[in-house]
Amino acid sequence: MKPEDMDPSIMMMYMPLMARTPLRPIAEPQEISGLVTFLCLPAASYITGQVIVVDGAYTAGGF
C-alpha cells in the first residue's frame, strides 16, 4: 500500500514512525517474505523461540 492510498488519519499515525525509521519507507511485503520463506525451509529447522526483528533499523536507533 502506498502512503497516498492510506486513510489520512492512519497516515498521521504512521508519519512519526516513518520519520524514525532509517531505511525509509516502511517495508513492503516482499522485503519481509524472504525471512518468512527461509524460516519455512529445512535449513531453519534448528531455529526455535526467536524474535527476529525486521524493522528497517528502527530498533538500532534505540527506540
UniProtKB/TrEMBL annotation:
InterPro entries: NAD(P)-bd_dom_sf, SDR_fam, TR. PANTHER family: TROPINONE REDUCTASE (PTHR42898), TROPINONE REDUCTASE HOMOLOG (PTHR42898:SF28). GO terms for molecular function: oxidoreductase activity. This is Uncharacterized protein. Gene3D superfamilies: NAD(P)-binding Rossmann-like Domain (3.40.50.720). Keywords: NADP, Oxidoreductase. Pfam families: adh_short_C2. The keyword Oxidoreductase applies. It comes from Ilex paraguariensis (yerba mate). The keyword Oxidoreductase applies.
